[in-house]
Write a structure and sequence with these properties.
The protein has 215 residues and is of the alpha/beta class. The chain contains 9 helices and 5 strands; from the N terminus they run E-H-H-E-H-H-H-E-H-E-H-E-H-H. The protein has helices at residues 21-24, 28-38, 55-63, 72-77, 88-95, 111-123, 143-160, 171-181, 196-214, and strands spanning 13-19, 43-49, 100-103, 129-133, 166-169. The chain has a 5-stranded parallel β-sheet, with helices on both faces. Helix 7 (143-160) links the parallel strand 4 and strand 5 (166-169). Helix 2 packs across helix 9 (196-214) and helix 7 (143-160) packs antiparallel against helix 8. The N and C termini lie close together (9 Å).
Length: 215
């Protein structure tokens, strides 16, 4: 079990949420906040959201807003989470002081994610922790292929994650199980974004995960 977040018993649970439209669709963070408050937890949530972006580009564009394209070359040259980068001090300030940093990217088998996790791990207070979003797969035509992709990413996570303060939010597994049980489950819309039902499930599972690690 991960350690208790630093400020939850003293004052306010402080959360930084970083992601794209898979997270902010249908005002999911607000639904999540309301669920925590119903459980008697005072919570403050700050966000960095950008449509379609991966985690590394979300951070890079925060500090280099003039960049129009976040290419692989740009990412390699502009890793703000590395100590050698000119914006590293600003990165430290950005992620400091939170009990939870939530990271939602596109795939778990992105090596940059683990550089970012290691950097945040070194910055957070001793009892803070990181939640990493396990994305669902838009492979509706073949259950075996979808499951294979999810398993491949989970294997990559287990092989490359070095932090003991990371918890996976298993949305890919949850959606996969629900779709297997009911192929008509309306979890995704025509653009493969969560429906209101899907976003509510994400908020519920995120709330359950946070409550579990706070108890």
């Amino acid at each position: 079990m991960l350690p208790l977040a630093t400020s939850v018993l003293l004052d306010t649970l402080k959360i930084l949420m970083i992601g794209n439209s898979l997270t902010y669709y249908n005002q999911m963070p607000m639904s999540f906040k309301h669920l925590l408050e119903e459980d008697g937890i005072t919570v403050s949530i700050d966000t960095i959201f950008m449509p379609g972006s991966n985690i590394e580009c979300l951070f890079i564009k925060t500090f280099y807003p003039e960049l129009e394209i976040c290419s692989d070359e740009i990412i390699e040259k502009t890793k703000v989470w590395n100590r050698g980068n000119a914006e590293y001090g600003a990165f430290v300030k950005l992620v400091s002081g939170y009990d939870i940093v939530y990271l939602q990217g596109n795939e778990l088998n992105d090596p940059n994610i683990y550089e970012i996790i290691n950097s945040i791990d070194a910055i957070l207070e001793k009892k803070g922790y990181i939640i990493i979003f396990q994305n669902y797969k838009n492979i509706t035509w073949n259950e075996n292929v979808r499951r294979k992709e999810l398993d491949k990413e989970l294997h990559y996570f287990k092989e490359h994650n070095q932090s003991k303060r990371v918890a996976i939010l298993p949305i890919g597994d949850v959606f996969d199980e629900m779709m297997n049980m009911d192929s008509s489950a309306q979890l995704l819309d025509n653009s493969n974004h969560p429906t209101q039902i899907g976003s509510n499930i994400i908020a519920q599972k995120l709330n359950e995960l946070v409550i579990y690690y706070l108890n």
